[in-house]
Amino acid sequence: MKFQFTRMAGLMVALVFLAFGKVAAQSSVVINELMASNQTYITDENGEYEDWIELYNTSNGPVDISGWHLTDKPDNLTKWKFPTNTSIPSQGYLIVWADEDSSQGPLHANFKLSAAGERLMLVNAGGSIVQDITFGAQQTDKGYARSPNGTGNFVIKNPTFKANNDTGISAVDEAARARALTVFPNPASGVEVVLRSEMPGFQTVEVFDQLGRLRWSTAFFNETKMDVSDWAAGFYLVKSGSAHQVLVVQ
Prior knowledge:
This protein is mainly β.
């Protein structure tokens, strides 16, 4: 009986492998939130309301996901590939726009999400599935997010774009709520951006691009400036201690 059970278990694993690819060990990078019906919530760097997928790095160090893939097709695990030098900083977030328009930027996937529900998979560079999410019908301008952040089950809730799912404060409205760090003008277009902190003492600020790469950093007291005139259009994460803002460069 034990022999038959072992053979059956082995056969099931083989069938799963053939149908869906290798199943990987637990990954520190997770699909953390998605929005499959974005009509008025937030626009991409081209001013368009598009579906989006948020990845979150749960680890205490950066993770390079160059060569990984996202797909909504179990029979095509390499449908969309993350570009070279894509990394997610420790406890950081990365947004992929699922708009079926890869010509708009390096983090625009070649597929859209279905508001009626479908399957979404994250596949590592070795071809192993590290996340396999099946979601049902979605609500317009609502997020489908893990709660607790990074580890919990998915629930439909108010979106928290590029931010902790448990805070209830998204990157969309943090500019008005997170008084510890101010970034202006925002959006910025070929200008000098002012960074202002209300925290006492010297602060270190870091700015990451859409691929999770460190774009700029400095230490400052109260206020500093950075020139973004030659920066590519897109979203940038500005972090100073526990405070953070999303800077939009047009």
